[in-house]
Every structure is written in structure tokens, then in C-alpha cells.
């Protein structure tokens, strides 16, 4: 991957360019947040790595946030602590500093996955909690029919779940995360029953995979999806998803115990 971007983004996506509306579309969903809180157990001090605009940070604990992107740090709401400018691979903390640590939708951005996870384990006494997507399960989502290039990008970027678990150790559990129909966190699968939302360019920019597609691929996606929505073809094949209260797709919570 490339070196850090101008705004400090350390991964392959430039959040200085695409992240301006991130906080508007990526609001933490309370049902997903409850799973993360349960995984953190009774930790009083929590490290959030790749913290972004602060989604899913618990507000009833002492949280230390790390985020390399200036654009993301600037979008953190006032009730959350400012984030430290640092990267996962070089955490500026002593061994065992935190009761628990967490990272959500971040590991696919790290330049060195193993180093970042090892650093989280080094500074954490208790559970290490990782929310990410399983690249082997992305095709459960109807989007692969309309934007195969976007799914291919995500499959290439998300590290395999066994690779993450192998680094974190034998006492690692993988929890499927059911996605609610009215999910407030606007990642791609959150719109499984609301396909019209993915015709909004700003909503798509809140999912970094779209920033890797060229204009022709995006135009083709918009044309095909809009046509099938207007004709009823999408609903004929996928309309049951509009009534499905939860979708169990690629989203996973990986919980590693020391």
C-alpha cells in the first residue's frame, strides 16, 4: 500500500478526499453497538484503533482513540475525546495499558495487519475486539450482481477471518453480526433492503470501496440498478429483502481473549 496521504490517512483510501460526509452516513447502529459493548466485557479503559469519527466508541468507559486521518479526527463529535494521530502498527502506549481494545471497519486499511494486531494485543490486558467483513461471504449480498467491481475491491481489501484469528491466538471467537433492516450505519450491506440509497453518490462515498471504481463502472451500476428499480425487476428478484428484519451477511465480530 501507499504511504500516508496528505491528510494523514495511512491506508489505501484517501479520507481527506472522500471522508467529508462520513459522519453523516456512518452513524453507529445501537444493535450492533450492543454486541461490541458485550464483547468488551467489564473493561473500564478501552483503546479504539482506527477510530475514525468515533462510531461505536462506548461513552460509559475511559476511551483512548487513535486515528491517522485529519479529516476523520475533525469529524469527531464534541462529547468524544480527541483522537491521537497514530497508526495501528506503532501504538504509542506501554504494554498492558488498556483493559480492552477495539477496531471497527479499519483492519483492511492497515499497511501491516499482523503488526497492527500484535500491537493491539501488546497494549491490551483483556479482550481485543475487531469488527470487519468476511471476504468469503460478500457475495451473499445482491450488490455483486449490479456492481461486481465494488465487491471485488472489498474482497481484495478485507483480510480473511482465519488470518486475523491466527494472529490473535487460540482463544478467538467469531460472532456473526446480524444487520438490521433500518441500520443507521451506512456501509454497503446496511442497504440490503433499501437499494435506492446506493444511488446517492454521497452515501456511496461513505463506503471507501466505491472510491476505487472508475466513472464508467459507477455509471454502469447506476444505470442498471435504476432501470431495474423502475421496471420492478429488482423487486421481483430481491423484494423480499425489503421485509427481512435482519440480514446475516459478511459482517463479523472477532473477539480474542488473552
UniProtKB/TrEMBL annotation:
- Which residue ranges does the record assign to the Methyltransferase type domain? 47-125
Q: Which Pfam families match?
A: Methyltransf_11
GO molecular function of the protein, one example?
A: S-adenosylmethionine-dependent methyltransferase activity
InterPro entries tied to this protein:
Methyltransf_11, SAM-dependent_MTases_sf
Can you name this protein? Methyltransferase type 11 domain-containing protein
**Organism, as annotated:** Hypericibacter adhaerens
Amino acid at each position: 500500500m501507499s504511504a500516508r496521504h496528505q491528510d494523514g490517512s495511512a491506508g489505501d483510501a484517501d479520507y481527506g478526499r472522500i471522508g467529508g460526509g462520513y459522519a453523516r452516513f456512518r452513524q453507529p447502529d445501537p444493535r450492533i453497538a450492543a454486541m461490541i459493548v458485550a464483547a468488551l466485557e467489564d473493561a473500564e479503559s478501552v483503546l479504539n484503533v482506527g477510530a475514525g469519527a468515533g462510531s461505536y466508541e462506548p461513552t460509559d468507559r475511559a476511551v483512548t482513540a487513535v486515528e491517522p486521518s485529519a479529516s476523520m479526527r475533525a469529524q469527531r463529535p464534541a462529547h468524544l475525546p480527541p483522537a491521537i494521530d497514530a497508526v495501528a502498527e506503532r501504538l504509542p502506549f506501554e504494554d498492558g495499558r488498556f483493559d480492552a481494545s477495539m477496531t471497527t471497519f479499519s483492519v483492511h486499511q492497515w499497511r501491516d495487519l499482523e503488526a497492527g494486531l500484535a500491537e493491539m494485543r501488546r497494549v491490551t490486558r483483556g479482550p481485543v475486539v475487531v469488527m470487519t467483513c468476511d471476504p468469503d461471504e460478500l457475495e451473499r449480498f445482491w450488490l455483486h450482481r449490479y456492481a461486481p467491481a465494488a465487491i471485488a475491491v472489498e474482497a481484495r481489501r478485507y483480510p480473511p477471518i482465519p488470518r486475523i484469528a491466527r494472529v490473535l491466538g487460540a482463544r478467538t471467537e467469531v460472532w456473526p453480526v446480524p444487520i438490521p433492516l433500518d441500520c443507521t450505519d451506512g456501509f454497503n450491506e446496511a442497504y440490503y433492503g433499501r437499494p435506492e440509497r446506493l444511488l446517492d453518490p454521497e452515501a456511496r462515498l461513505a463506503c471507501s470501496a466505491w472510491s476505487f471504481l472508475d466513472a464508467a463502472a459507477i455509471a454502469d451500476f447506476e444505470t442498471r440498478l435504476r432501470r431495474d428499480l423502475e421496471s420492478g425487476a429488482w423487486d421481483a428478484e430481491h423484494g423480499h429483502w425489503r421485509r427481512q428484519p435482519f440480514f446475516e451477511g459478511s459482517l463479523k465480530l472477532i473477539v480474542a481473549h488473552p
